[in-house]
Amino acid sequence: MININEVIETNSMVSEQTLDVRTITMGINLLECADRDLEVCCKKIYDKITSYARDLVATGNDISREIGIPIVNKRVSVTPIALVGGACCHTPEDYVTIAKTLDRAAKEIGINFLGGYSAIVSKGMTRSDELLIRSIPQAMKETQFICSSINVGSTKTGINMDAVRLMGEIIKETAEATKENDSLGCGKLVVLCNAPDDNPFMAGAFHGVSEADAIINVGVSGPGVVHHALKGIRGESFEVLCETIKKTAFKITRVGQYVAQEASRRLGVPFGIIDLSLAPTPAVGDSVADILCEIGLEKAGAPGTTAALALLNDQVKKGGVMASSYVGGLSGAFIPVSEDQGMIDAVECGALTLEKLEAMTCVCSVGLDMIAIPGETPASTISGIIADEAAIGMVNQKTTAVRIIPVIGKNVGDTVEFGGLLGYAPVQPVNRFSCEAFVNRKGRIPAPIHSFKN
Amino acid sequence: MNKTIITVVGKDTTGIIAKVCTYLAENSINILDISQTIVQGYFNMMMIVDTSKMKHSFAETATALEQLGSEIGVQVKCQREEIFEKMHRI
After folding, report:
1. Cα distance from A3 to chain B (closest Cα, Å)?
2. Which one in A51, A346, A349, A393 has a CA-CA gap of 20 to 30 Å to A440?
């Protein structure tokens, strides 16, 4: 039988160490909503989302109440919209109409984000893909809950540099379109390489075509719990360090597994995966950077950071895999700047640069995330940053991403406030040398040699 | 059997257990196990109870116990036992 110390341990994880389940995300297939008539298509989309996910928020809240652990976000991901809107969208404005429909559906069911305003263009762009991409600035301006993601490369296909070039421009246009809100639109737009089909986390969540009609995916969190556990073993060997992270990750992930199974049972929707993640928030004590410091760094970004992060990421996976029956999504440590107080501090004191962040993305689960850069950064430079990240993902057979915000009217030294979960960020300097001639070449970067394994 | 864990945390005072137990008895909730300890000067009590015959819903019972707790100056929490089983047992 459970003993009092175990109960106290679990409850102090919640009350003192900010343990929560970060998100229950319901993936919904919208392929059947395709129609030649835009109005009909929008109606089908709205009806399907609002009927499938009608009870999502209430169910999440009920489970949270019964287990005494917060479930912070309830979200929906949908089939990449470029696949759904192809038959009825003839202009970017037509796609914006779908975006607004999704936004209304999200508002109706009470979720805080809906992902899947997406296109998969890792090898080439269809007309429909390009129309969707060109609609992103306006769609981000006119909606509140929609997240957009574009997959521009993969290990199997290489990198679509035409899409990379276009996304540099689109990010700049989105920044301009949402400049009244510190270019917040770019915080809901991510460019990926090797994007997973079952990611529950925003902004990159979409319901891939390899998925069932509807699915429940859960993202766990808990950097504060790992940090607390490591405080108790200062100065111990790497063996003790790794064992402690693994055991903690196991416990955190078990919560996610339980929540996913319960949500799946109550909603009558199959359980998909658990995303084993250390997802920070701007709240004090909920920081991945603090874990790196506890491992032994003065600040995140100091020499040794990449190794410490590689270790952390791997142990989280090793502990988490055994705790869950199905693991997927991004799975690993997230290192967003604006959403992690320790990362913000590291940038502000000059310990953490864009280049070091790039190195860190080689060994953790995502990429350059929630980084504010000067608004006057050229589109080609942003494309160059995207190409670098995509190359890391392509060659290392992992997911990488860029969610970068060129804040219009702001420069190095300024601070940007995004609010809520998105936090705030100091504007970081970007290498000022040009890559325009590189980015302006047409076509794609071929797949690396390890695609010929089979 | 439907097991729920009730925890009571706060400053020790007369009648905490009596009040919580009275409420449980009146609502057909059977106590299976009680243990208590002092952590950092705070009174910590844990009860494992069977809620399969309880009169109200889980949420209503949890809210009523929270209210009762705030009347006597302690924090009372109700949680399904499964979450602890999942976390601490393989």
Report:
1. 8
2. A393
Instruction: Determine which helix (DSSP H) or strand (DSSP E) holds B44, and give its type and residue range.
Output: strand B42-50
A68 DSSP 8-state letter:
T
| pLDDT one-digit tens code per residue, A87-96 | 999 999 999 9
Give contacts of A68 with chain B, Cβ < 8 Å: 77-79, 83
Structure confidence by residue, pLDDT tens digits, A330-388 = 998 899 999 999 999 999 999 999 999 999 999 998 899 999 999 999 999 999 999 99
Q: Interface pTM (ipTM) of the complex?
A: 0.92
Domains of chain A, each with CATH number or no CATH: 217-365+409-448 (3.20.70.20)
Helix, coil or strand: residue A118: strand
Chain B residues closer than 8 Å to A62 by CB: 59
B3-88: CATH topology is: Alpha-Beta Plaits (3.30.70)
Secondary structure string (H, E, C) spanning A291-334: HHHHHCCCCCCCCCHHHHHHHHHHHHHHHHHHHCCCECCCCEEC
Query: Considering only CA atoms, which of A261, A266, A239 is closest in space to residue A323?
Result: A261
Compute how many other C-beta atoms are within 10 angstroms of the C-beta atom of residue B33: 14
Q: What are phi and psi of A235, to 5 degrees?
A: 85, -5
Instruction: Give me the percent of chain A exceeding a pLDDT of 70.
Output: 99
**Chain A residue at shortest CA distance from B37:** A4
Can you tell me the distance from the alpha carbon of B54 to that of B37, in angstroms, rounded to the nearest whole number?
27
* Residue type for position B16: I
Least Cα separation, residue A255 to chain B (angstroms): 6
Q: Are A275 and A333 in contact (CB under 8 A)?
A: no
Task: Spell out the domain ranges in chain B.
Answer: 3-88
